[in-house]
UniProtKB/TrEMBL annotation:
A GO cellular-component term linked to this record: cytosol
Organism: Halanaerobium polyolivorans
Database matches in Pfam families: IMS, IMS_C, IMS_HHH
Family of this protein: Belongs to the DNA polymerase type-Y family.
Keywords from the UniProt entry: DNA damage, DNA-directed DNA polymerase, Mutator protein, Nucleotidyltransferase, Transferase
GO molecular function, one term: damaged DNA binding
Domain UmuC span(s) in chain numbering: 13-199
Gene3D superfamilies according to UniProt: 3.30.70.270, 3.40.1170.60, 5' to 3' exonuclease, C-terminal subdomain, DNA polymerase, Y-family, little finger domain
Name the record gives this protein: UV damage repair protein UvrX
Amino acid sequence: MKIDYKNAPNDNILCVDMKAFYASIELIKRNLNPLEAHLAVVGDKKRKGSVVLATSTALKEKYGIHTGSRLFEIPQHDEIIIAEANMQLYLDISMEITKLFNSFVPLNSIHIYSIDEAWLNLNGTEKKYGGSLTTAKKIKQKIWDKFSLLCSMAVAPNMFLAKVAMDIEGKKVGLCKWDYSDVKTKLWPIKLSKCWGIGKKTEKKLNSIGIFKVGELAKLPLSYLENKFGIIGNQLYYHAWGIDYSKLEGHYQDNRHNIGRGITLLRDYNDLEEIKTVIFNLAEEVAKRARHNNLRAKTIKLSLSFSYQESEKGFSRQTTIKKATNLSQDIFAAAIFLLQKYYRGETLRKVTLSLGNFSNNSYRQLKLFGSDEKKIKINQIRDQLEKQLGHDALFYARNIQKGSVKNKIDNTIGGHKK
C-alpha cells in the first residue's frame, strides 16, 4: 500500500512536556537551580521502600536515581535533598500553566495528557504570534518567565508525530519540528521500545516476528497487521508511517460522567468489617464530591483489587438504584449490597468506589413520611462544618474503627500527600 501524505493531517500540533516537573517545583521553592541541584520527590519520607516519584536532572545523571527507584536506593549525601510529594501544589501550578496555554490558544485547542504534559493545536496563531516555531518559543519563554520551569517541545503535523518528536529530539534540544519528510530519517530508526504508543506486550509480539524498529514495522502489509492485531494493527501501520488521524480536542474532567475515589491499602485486608469500614470512608468522600458538584447518582460501582497472592486480580461490579442520591448512607448501602453479593473472602489491596448516571440535585422526590430530609440536613451540616473547621470537625464513629482509611483519604491526592 502506497502512503499518500497529501491526504494526511497537516496541522501545527505542539507537544509540551514539563522537564522534571515535581522536582523542579520543589527546587524553585527552595531557591535552588533546577538544573544543578540534586533532589528526589518521594511519596513518604518515613518509609524506606517509598517510591521515587520524580528526580532532578542532576540527580538522575550523577547518581542514576530515576522515577520508580526506591528511597533506600538513594545515597546519603549532603548534596541530595529528599522532598515529600506536595500534589496539591503540583496540580495548582499545572492549572496555572494550562491558563498560560489558554492565553495563546482556545481551550478546545488544548489537550491535557497528564499533569506535566499537553498538546496544543497552533492552527490560527500565525497572524498574532508568527509561525508555529515562533509561537512555541514564546510559550516556552513565558513558562520560564512566570514559573522558572523548563520544558521540552516539538511541533509536527499530528499528535503522534509531535509526541514522538518531543520524546526523541525535543528532550535533547528543547524545541524541534518534524514533518512527513522526516519520517524515514528520524522516525524509522527508533526502536519499538522507545516509540510512544507501542506497549510491552505489542513490542514482544512484534519482536517475535523479527520487528525491532519502527522502519521495519512500516514495511509490513497493512492487512497482515490488521489480521494479527485487529484495530490496533491499523494504528500501528499508520503510526509507523508518521500518520495519526485522531483529532486534538479539549480534554477536561467531566464530573457529570463519573465521580470516584480509590485507595491503595498499606496492608492486606480480609476482615469483612474492616473492608466495610474502608467502603464507608470512600462512600463519604464520593458523596461529598457529588454534593459539591450539585449532582445525584443512580449508579454505584465497587471495584476490588486482590493481593498478588490471590489467583484472580479482582472484580468491578455496579448497581443502579431507583432514586438518585448523594447521601453517604445510601451510597454505602448500595456498595455493601455489591460486596455481599460478589465478595468471597479474598485478600484486598485496593478498593475503589465510583458514582455515575447523574441527575441535577435541584430536583428530588421526597418521601412524605420518610427520613430523607433528616439525612440531607445531617450531610449538609457536616459539609459546612468541614469547610469551616476541617475534616475532623464532625464525623461518624465508624471512621475511627479498625481498618479506617479516613485520614489517608482526607490528606492525599492521587495516593500522595496534599
